[in-house]
Amino acid sequence: MTVELICVGTELLLGNIVNTNAAFISEKCAMLGLSMYYQSVVGDNPGRLEELLRTARERSSVIILSGGLGPTQDDLTKETAAKVLHRNLVEDKKAKQKIQEFMEKRGRRITENNWKQAFVPENSQVLYNSNGTAPGIIMEEGQTRMILLPGPPNELIPMFEEQVFPYLHKLQPETICSKMVKLCGIGESSAETKILDLIDAQTNPTVAPYAKTGEVHLRITAKAESKQAAYALIEPLEQELQNRFGSLIYTDDSNVTLEMAVYHLLKEKQLTVTTAESCTGGLLAGRLINVPGISEYLKEGYVTYSNEAKEKLLGVEAEILKKHGAVSSQTAEAMARGGAKAAGADICIAVTGIAGPDGGTIEKPVGLVYMSCFCRGKLYTEKNHYSGDRGKIREYAVASALTLLREAVLKYKDEG
Amino acid sequence: MTVELICVGTELLLGNIVNTNAAFISEKCAMLGLSMYYQSVVGDNPGRLEELLRTARERSSVIILSGGLGPTQDDLTKETAAKVLHRNLVEDKKAKQKIQEFMEKRGRRITENNWKQAFVPENSQVLYNSNGTAPGIIMEEGQTRMILLPGPPNELIPMFEEQVFPYLHKLQPETICSKMVKLCGIGESSAETKILDLIDAQTNPTVAPYAKTGEVHLRITAKAESKQAAYALIEPLEQELQNRFGSLIYTDDSNVTLEMAVYHLLKEKQLTVTTAESCTGGLLAGRLINVPGISEYLKEGYVTYSNEAKEKLLGVEAEILKKHGAVSSQTAEAMARGGAKAAGADICIAVTGIAGPDGGTIEKPVGLVYMSCFCRGKLYTEKNHYSGDRGKIREYAVASALTLLREAVLKYKDEG
Within the 150-169 window of chain A, which residues sit less than 8 Å (CB to CB) from chain B? Predict the structure, then answer.
């Protein structure tokens, strides 16, 4: 079954916003085994939208539209889609009531415009919206299915997950299941090379790599007549990935992030951690604190951007800084050792490097980052060299530091 | 003049990556005064791409394509575009040499595939690529202009900025200039309301708002026969925005970020700063350290996620924490006062709040964030309530804290 996506909004054509909805919807459709051949963006222009809808009807069986369901005169997606399918708009009482509730709850004044949003094409399935005033709509007409969704991601995402995904799932004669295996500590091309034979030979299940900063995610997808049968197809491939990547796999749960995986390990082993950051300057602590509940294991962190701060807060000896420089394995190790002591934590992960654009030399170029993890008396130290701008270098350093921290905690188990 | 964008890549249709190229190119085209009515995404499929190119030729005068210029068999954008314009591919010696240089410099082995990238449609303008092996291409045929660009943003962006932007600029009979006025401390809808009369009345110059987290950017664009004349049109409108928004404007330079504006103020007034973060957990320090050179003014920062850390590192009295709780104006103020003292800094910006998803109560719901800025003896304290998930709440809190810090430093000048 083919699906086509049309995003409506002049703000997309002007580049005011990035089209994250397209990536979200496309990924979900791929998970469902739907083939998407076209995505389009048009402005809030009913003539052009109508033309595009007619073209889409000829080439795709499911047409998903996002945006243009707002209360203003410009918002004409619903009107245009109804016109193409020859339907009138009728008031939906429940939609009207939901709009009223939504506005009252937020103490906002309801304007006449808002009631426009309670009108839906006749004989359509209404997708009620808990996060905004625009209901979504599903229309079926012959071989065509048209799905209209509100543009704001905080409305579109839950509506898709809760109402559209199950609807599309039912259209598929087969059950499609997928599992995400997430790796850290390996680059995308190395990961891909390791499974090239699997990718080349694949039909069902399939495996596809998704590159993230400092991580590679592998999605295994299988089609079968039942959930159980699909997972039975996935299982041997997952086992094969497990054999090939071993402890580089930090989770097989798509909802678990790298920092969450680290948190689970800390919790399992009841180890506390602190951070000592120079070039990453708080971003590493910031990522760990993404995890609700980390407060039991991370009580404090240090941003020690200057040499004085490294001495004062972490007890790094002036001698080390003078002899080896702030960006050195010796300083990274002293920061890690000193940070753990200062915080009274089992572990300290320390990062020091040159994020640029200035400050690089031939011996110590921009992008050179040392990191060290002190874990109950043991030190794990790493030298990395990243390319990219200041932002990218810091982002990669944070991902590597989380990976090093994870490895140290994993090893603690092995030896403990 | 109308422009249309076609992004080629199966990875976009599968949702593996977000189409940031589309937003980048669209914004640049809007700056140039080019009207974009359509954006499309197709996979690496020559049949569908050809059909789309023929449609685009009928409705747009400039067609920009991104992606599909790689060395593999799948990459067929160049071949397809050449076919539509009835051109043969010929080897470009300079492109070949550039590919060789690029690969050798990186110590990579050149495969037979790579030489495919040295072939370009005859009679085309070649855009040499300093950041990859795929040259870009411009073809002119009757009223049609086709511009082919490599997909990776680190290749596309510099090629666009350096070669395509000037090319498109020349096509425009008029000079188009723009200026970005950036605001903080005001929401998008309030900002828009304040200039609704200007937006409604506008023809040349125009002003358009772009919403960012905790910021609003207003782009003024003017068309004229010369640069000087365009800026002469911009100037009174910028003055008008200055009158209406006053010190909420933190810069009129599109390259300056909020943290850079704060850095410039700290430098101007020679004030040092430190951070004391609870719920933002390092992200505020992380943003300040985005600015190269901040090290002179920010030497250290504290992540004090637990009550113990607030007492130990910042000297917050146990009494205050007990009586008012960790999320209170009293604690925020004690953190700010204590942080400045601990770091020996002129200023400390402190943040404490409930980022969720748990930990909220009726009196102190998720999203409640207190922040306080101590600046040479004065305290500026703010209570905010954000909606969204944990990530959004923390991101907004960081933006507000930077705004509060900026205000405190600005006021210091007034009173100094």
Answer: 154
Residue to test with chain B: of A305, A316, A395, most B Cβ within 10 A: A305
Residue B98's alpha-carbon distances to A253, A268, B88, B167, B312, in angstroms, are: 44, 53, 21, 22, 59
CA geometry: angle B251, B256, B259, nearest 5 deg: 95
CA distance B84 to B74: 18
Q: In the 8-state DSSP scheme, what is residue A111?
A: P
CA distance B390 to B358: 10
Q: Rg of the Cα trace of chain B? A: 26
Question: Does any CB of chain B come closer than 8 Å to the CB of residue A280?
Answer: yes
Q: Which of A149, A171, A193 is the last residue of a domain?
A: A171
Cβ within 8 Å, pair B300-A309: yes
* Closest chain A residue by Cα to residue B36: A13
Looking up residue B29, the CATH number of its domain turns out to be 3.40.980.10
What domain range includes position B23?
2-171
Instruction: Measure Cα distances from A189 to A135, B16, B188 in Å.
Output: 43, 15, 42
- Please indicate, yes or no, whether residues A17 and A31 belong to a single structural domain of this protein: yes
Residue A100 shares a structural domain with residue A210 = no
Domain count, chain A: 3
A156-192 tens-digit pLDDT: 999 999 999 999 999 877 778 889 999 999 887 788 8
Nearest to A267 by CA among A293, A299, A301: A293
Res A416: pLDDT:
47
User: What's the whole-number mean pLDDT along residues B199-207?
Assistant: 87
Q: What is the pLDDT of residues A12-46, one digit of tens each?
A: 998 878 899 999 999 899 888 888 999 999 998 99
C-alpha span between B181 and A300 (Å, rounded): 38
DSSP, residue by residue, A243-310: HHHGGGEEES-TT--HHHHHHHHHHHHT--EEEEESTTTTHHHHHHTTSTTGGGTEEEEEEE-SHHHH
Strands A175-184 and A249-251: antiparallel
Strands B62-66 and B2-8: parallel
Please tell me the number of Cα atoms within 13 Å of A10 on its side-chain side.
Answer: 11
pLDDT tier at B414 (50, 70, 90 boundaries)? low
Q: pTM of the predicted model, to two decimals? A: 0.81
CB A114 within 8 A of CB A124: no
Contact B42 A45 (CB under 8 A): no
Out of A20, A27, A301, name the one closest to residue B303 (CB). Answer: A301
Q: What is the largest CA-CA distance in chain A?
A: 81
Residues A242 and A273 in one domain: no
Give ipTM to 2 decimals.
Answer: 0.80
- A399 and A262 in a common domain: yes
CA distance A120 to chain B (A): 27
B403 and B290, same structural domain? yes
Indicate whether B198 and B136 sit together in one domain. Answer: no
Q: Does B280 lie at the interface with A, CB-CB under 8 angstroms?
A: yes
Domain with residue A196: its CATH number is 3.30.70.2860
Q: How far is A239 from chain B (nearest CA, A)?
A: 24
Yes or no, beta carbons of B38 and A37 under 8 Å apart: no
In chain B, % of residues over pLDDT 70? 99
Q: Is A20 on the interface with B (CB under 8 A)?
A: yes
How far apart CA B267 and CA B273 sit, in angstroms, is 11
Beta-bridge partner residues of B145: B62, B140
Q: Which residue of B has its CA nearest to A394?
A: B290
Residue at token pair 């995404």: B41
Strand ranges (E), A154-246: 175-184, 206-212, 215-224
